[in-house]
Amino acid sequence: MNKPPLSDAAAIGRAIPRIPASVASSRTAEGLIRLEGPVRRRAWLLRLFHLPVRAHVELDDIGTFAVERFGRASVAEIAADLAAHLHLQRREAEVALGDFLRLLLRRGLVELEPTR
Questions:
Q1: SS3 call for 28
Q2: Which of 81, 109, 114, 116 is nearest to 6 (CA)?
Q3: Burial of 76 (0-12, 13-18, 19+ CB in 10 A)
Q4: Domain ranges for the chain
Q5: What is d(CA 51, CA 29) in angstroms, rounded to the nearest whole number?
Q6: For the chain, what percent of residues have pLDDT higher than 90?
Q7: CA-to-CA dists, residue 89 to 37, 96, 106, angstroms
Q8: What is the b/e burial string over 33-71, where b = at least 16 CB atoms within 10 angstroms of the residue's CB?
Q9: Cα gap 58→50, rounded to integer Å
Q10: Which residues have CB under 8 Å from 61's CB, separation 6+?
């Protein structure tokens, strides 16, 4: 599917984060979410340095709270939920969620689906 780029803050706020099909999601014994997906590196680099071919991220309770809303809520709605849950100013929640999403995007563990 050809998706338009997310070029402004309003478009990102409306986007819906989703876990890609290539990423496995599981629960730890503590109920936290663990994500495992393919590493975004060149194959020769992985072989040369004996690097893992899968990225593993175990989320804390706040990351789990956010990821549980992926696929159902927009970035702006998740930020509002985080602000209410953690008793933060909305802007603080937006910044924290933005940093979290950038980390997951960089590792290929989440994708943003633009809405119209």
A1: coil
A2: 114
A3: middle
A4: 20-109
A5: 27
A6: 62
A7: 32, 11, 26
A8: bebebebeeeeeeeeeeeeeeebebebeeebbbbbebbe
A9: 22
A10: 32
In the chain, the amino acid numbered 115 is: T
What's the chain's average pLDDT? 85
The DSSP-derived string for 62-97 is HHHHHHTTTTTS-HHHHHHHHHHHHT--HHHHHHHH
Closest C-alpha among 6, 20, 12 to residue 109: 20
pLDDT score of 61: 95
Q: At residue 76, does pLDDT exceed 70? A: yes
CB-count burial class (<10 Å; 0-12, 13-18, 19+) for 110: buried
Does 20-109 carry CATH code 1.10.10?
yes
Compute the C-alpha angle 40/43/51, nearest 5°: 75
Instruction: Residue count of the chain, please give it.
Output: 116
Kindly state the average pLDDT of the residues 62-81: 96
